[in-house]
Design brief:
alpha+beta, four-stranded mixed beta sheet, 2 helices, 4 strands
């Protein structure tokens, strides 16, 4: 499995936190995209714990050959 943590820079300079998790195999994959407002209970977690949490939550998709993209999006988070 390959895991990438990136901050996607938008045209106005805002960085959106993004995690991409792909199966270990090479090639193209169908992708599940999950988006969430900036503010959530995971903001206090270290990057390592956050990555492990997302990997565990999405293991079912990875086992079926899907890639998973998680991204914070603009919003109030309330």
């Amino acid at each position: 499995m390959a895991v990438y943590q990136i901050h996607r820079i938008q045209s106005e300079g805002v960085a959106l936190f993004t995690i991409v998790v792909k199966p270990a195999a090479e090639g193209k994959f169908p992708t599940v995209i999950k988006r969430n407002p900036y503010v959530n209970p995971t903001t206090e977690l270290s990057d390592e714990k956050l990555l492990l949490m997302y990997m565990a939550e999405n293991e079912k998709w990875l086992k079926r050959g899907y890639a998973v993209v998680f991204q914070h999006c603009r919003g109030r988070g309330k």
